[in-house]
Amino acid sequence: MKTTTNKKRLLAGGMAALLGVGVAFGHKVVVPVDQPDDGEAKVQIAILLDTSGSMSGLIEQTKTQLWRIVNTFIDAKQNGQVPFVEVALYEYGNDGLSGEAHWVRQIQPLTRDLDQVSADLFGLRTNGGSEFCGAVIERASLDLKWDSTPGVYKAIFVAGNEPFTQGPIDPNGACKSAISKGIIVNTIHCGTEKDGIAGGWKSGAMLADGTFLVINHNEAVVHIVAPQDTEILRLNAELNKTYIPIGKLGAMKREEQKVQDDNAAARPESGAAVQRARTKSSSNYWNGNWDLVDACKTKEFKWTELKEEDLPDEMKKLNVEERKAYVAKKQEERRGIQKKINKLNKDREVYVTDELKKTGEGAENTLDAVVVNTVRDQAKKKGYSFAKK
Question: In a 3-state reduction of DSSP, which class is residue 234?
Fold first, then answer.
């Protein structure tokens, strides 16, 4: 790929050209964004969204509830290991896409770069179109780098409101092909259960060991304001100060981190900011492609290959041992803040549970609720265990 193309994509905030192939700091490749730790378990989820004209509510729910979906696995374990989550994102059914590609676009491949996934979601726009579920399921099944390890939980969630059977690609065949690779296909019909069954959404899920789900994509997500929220958000701002950007990419990604904090905070009624802070206090929020604190933990990392010009001003004149000590201090600060956020969140969950019991609220037919419940049930069958709610 030409250097000029890479620069344009970086300046636009896009990471697709870099994911999975490594990121250069100076002239050295330090670590790919999806690099797992040794022995770490994995979860792979592809979200396929209908972005035709009537789907703005679905997109809005996904923007704000991405964090809660990822947080499903914070307290999970498989073979004693806490899993990390990779998320892929596709859109389909939008007239602004290519007809030759059946109105399907891969927005993001499987990645741990959750800030970029969030940025991409906030960049989505609806436009009337032809919704071909078979085409987008086939693309996600074939294009993505799915892990072939039998114990990995791999799932597609395809959401839309038109008949599942539309388009030139047989959706049932696409579902059968996916499950033959161990990829579960869950279908989410944005409408009534009756219409979803009649439109083929249920039969598609059944063919791929999946679950047929029904949501009201225009319903507001229930969020309870808790006494712990203010302190959690304050600590989230402190957490950002522990990140050490490397090079131009690091500077851009640290700014993106704040932008996505602001996007979540701009929708207080959804609770997205608190859920995002919880994600950031877990191992699922990993930024080894631009943050020195995360990058130095990987076995590929070499302190001697860091370029002075790629470091922040306060580290430029430090020798190698002083740089290690500086990063170690930031690591300790981060662990301390994350520990505090996690403690506050546990207290928060107790408070919210009590409040929901009092009010009888708790939407069970919004995107986050149905996905969270589904992934827990399906992942248990793959050997993942979850802390009791």
Answer: helix
- Please report which helix (H) or strand (E) contains residue 106, including its range: strand 104-111
**DSSP 3-state of 376:** helix
Q: Specify the DSSP class assigned to residue 53.
A: T
Whose structure tokens read 């957490």? Answer: 239
DSSP H helices in the chain: 3-11, 56-71, 114-122, 133-143, 171-180, 193-198, 201-207, 229-240, 247-265, 272-280, 292-295, 313-316, 320-359, 367-380
Max CA-CA distance within the chain? 67
Domain ranges of the chain: 39-220+363-386, 229-359
Q: 16-55 in b/e burial notation, b at 16+ Cβ within 10 A?
A: eebbeebbebeebebbbbbbbeeeebbbbbbbbbbbbebb
Q: Is the pLDDT of residue 20 over 70?
A: no
CA–CA dist 267, 84 (Å, integer): 26
Q: Strand, coil or helix: what is 269?
A: helix
Q: 3-state DSSP call for residue 160?
A: strand
Q: Which CATH code is given to the segment(s) 39-220+363-386?
A: 3.40.50.410
Q: Which residue has the tokens 């929901």?
A: 356
Q: At what angle do helices 133-143 and 171-180 cross, to 10 degrees?
A: 20
Distances (CA, A) of 363 to 258, 360, 367: 29, 10, 10
311: helix, strand or coil: coil
Cα torsion through 369, 68, 182, 80, rounded to 10? -120
50 neighbors 57 (Cβ within 8 angstroms)? no
Cα 235–chain centre separation: 22
pTM assigned to the model: 0.85
Q: What secondary structure does DSSP assign to 277-295, as a single string?
A: HHHHTSTT---TTTBHHHH
pLDDT of residue 215: 83
- What digits encode the pLDDT tens for the residues 70-120? 999 998 999 989 899 999 999 999 999 999 999 999 999 999 999 999 999
